Task: structure prediction
Amino acid sequence: MSDKNNWIDLRSDTVTQPSSAMLAAMARAEVGDDVYGDDPAVNRLQEYAAELFGFEAGLFAPSGTQTNLIALMTHCGRGDEYLVGQEAHTYKYEGGGAAVLGSIQPQPIVNQPDGSILLSDIAAYIKPDDVHFARTRLLALENTIGGRVLPRDYVAAATALAHAQGLATHLDGARICNAAVAQAISLRAVVAGFDTVSVCLSKGLGAPVGSVLLGPKAFIEQGKRWRKMLGGGMRQAGVIAAAGQFALEHNVQRLAADHDNAAALALGLSGIEALRVSTPQTNIFWIDVPAGACEPLRQALVRERIRATVGPRMRLVTHLDVSGADVARTVDVFKHFFAGWQA
Result:
């Protein structure tokens, strides 16, 4: 808890620390054995999240990687495939779990600059009913993707296309609450068109751990078997479920502050001639840094107790532990560094 008061951490919104109010909710949690379905706090979280997003049922798991994998393995069997963007976490950043553990073939498709996949590409990559091909079963999208919000009309068109072709639809909604807040729409509206959704509680929402998979009751019942097999069956998990409950009840609308801080940080850094700064839509944006500046910049940031993943293509992420004052200080540190480096 003390470390967050001494460092500004811009690496990810996964680094948030639980607040005192969240810790109090965790301490009060009534717990049971969740593998038996007996944990009141877990059951409450699953039911609350399902109602909030407009689904029949929910399944709590330790991570978004696991809830995504449970979804893929429930939607698809051995020899099936899912269509997915090349930049998507389920394809690029989750260890190849669908292929390794599910015998599911990913069909990666190029993402457009706005994070979408062209509808024509989705249609083109759906395989015919032929023994030569894997069976296309699922379209998996991600929102937000790299901080970009998928347009509502695009989501509606893509999910309609998939359903018309007999495919199911899954959303990696690790930061779906950011998308809803950015678009000023409800959580139900932002997930419309998807058969299943994975919602991460431990990124911008601030819980220390956990994600919830949402979908039809029968689907979630099947998913419980995969969760157990993947090692996600937890016992007195209500302690961490209570943190997720608190996050959904208190930390959704406050994401707007993270978006504002990202915009302010990007604006401040855009005044530095050596940097090329993207415009954030939510709490994530990217800057291009001269290669020769990367290592000395990293060292300068560490000296000023600022954590960031420094590289030629550098991602900065704001979250509930980054304040407006932190943003101003970070801008000052960058400006001071580049004034000296350019000289």
The radius of gyration is 21 Å. The longest strand covers residues 135-142.
